Amino acid sequence: MPYDPAFILTADNRHEAVSFLMDCGYGQAALAIMSNVAMANAYHKEGWTRTPTPDAIQRATAKAILDTMAAMPGGRIDEELVRYLARQECEVMLANLTPQRLEIVTPTSSAIIDGPLHYCTPLVIQIASLGDAIMLVGPAGCGKTTIGEHVAKALGLAFYITNTINDTHELTGFVDGHGNYKRTPFRQAFECGGVWIADEIDAWDASALLAANSALANGFASFPDSESPVYQHPDFRMVATANTFGTGADRVYVGRNELDAASLDRFAVIEVDYDINLERMFAGTNDRWLERVWSVRKTVNDKKIRHVVSSRAIGKGARALSIGIPWDKVETIYLFKGMSSKDRSKIDD
Which SS3 state, helix, strand or coil, does residue 289 take? Predict the structure, then answer.
């Protein structure tokens, strides 16, 4: 049976999922004891991995072009027609790149999340459902904040984010010259419930980090507009993001601070890396650009060059190339931005 990205498992159609998974190589005995949730996730995971790859898209596009050229009278090539056909073929194939769909079960509910999803998403959602504060540690541009958005969606909670904090008032708010209290995303989530992203927490001001740590430890916090402490809402969830494991600056992330043991002990720490499957999607049909970015990333890591090669470079570079911006300019703008000429010379040695 063909894969259906909108498929939702029920008691009535479980046999369809069983049939599909048996075609994928699953054993009948294993399927017989598989829960509905596990079966639904397996169904969509297998369907996701069987969707057209960039290689398949390029092959189909090339075949369509060759067939068109062969059919042209007298061997005359209509370049505009060929370009048009190539665009149409790519669009059709890309439309079939179905998003991932997962059913996430938590102690209080279940939710279906549509992708594209980072591979860490299900684990982070499950831990957040327990109420534990989470710290996602990984390189810039690997999808940490997007994972936090999916946590909020899965738990049915509001989503808030606070970027790098340089002073405690950016966390707790302040009373302006007219006597009006200015609320913050932290205050809103802490008091009313919601998923709060503490972005780049390893670059925060130490006093602000201490205030957040105190609120997590005590279950209440002080704010400028209230003489009494404000107690943490049962649906408050904190997801911190960081580029380091709280050990301070390194060769790439030079502006990072050390986090004390008490702060680190509050978090469930999950390491997040670039998701290769998502990066393939970001590249669309441009395998050459995807492989170039991956090659540069490997060289940067192997030669310990102080530079970040993120997933953003893949998506933004592929889009720029698709509208005709020259390759060398795309490399300069999206891949080698800010890299010294000395380090640049090491890339293709």
Answer: helix
**Mean confidence (pLDDT) of the chain:** 79
Residue 230 and residue 298: Cα distance in Å, rounded?
48
Task: Supply the DSSP symbol for 107.
Answer: S
Residue 177 DSSP code: T
- In angstroms, rounded to a whole number, what is the distance separating the alpha carbons of residues 189 and 237? 8
**CA–CA gap between residue 69 and residue 58 (Å, rounded):** 16
Q: Are 284 and 250 in contact (CB under 8 A)?
A: no
- Can you give the pLDDT at residue 159? 94
* Closest by CA position to 336, among listed 348, 344, 346, 324: 344
Any residues with CB less than 8 A from the CB of 67 and at least 6 apart, and which? none
> In angstroms, what CA-CA distances link 223 with 215, 234, 316?
11, 18, 41
Q: Is 269 exposed, middle or buried (0-12, 13-18, 19+ CB in 10 A)?
A: middle
Please list the ranges in the chain whose pLDDT falls under 50: 53-54, 92-98, 248-256
Q: List the structure tokens of 107.
A: 């102690």
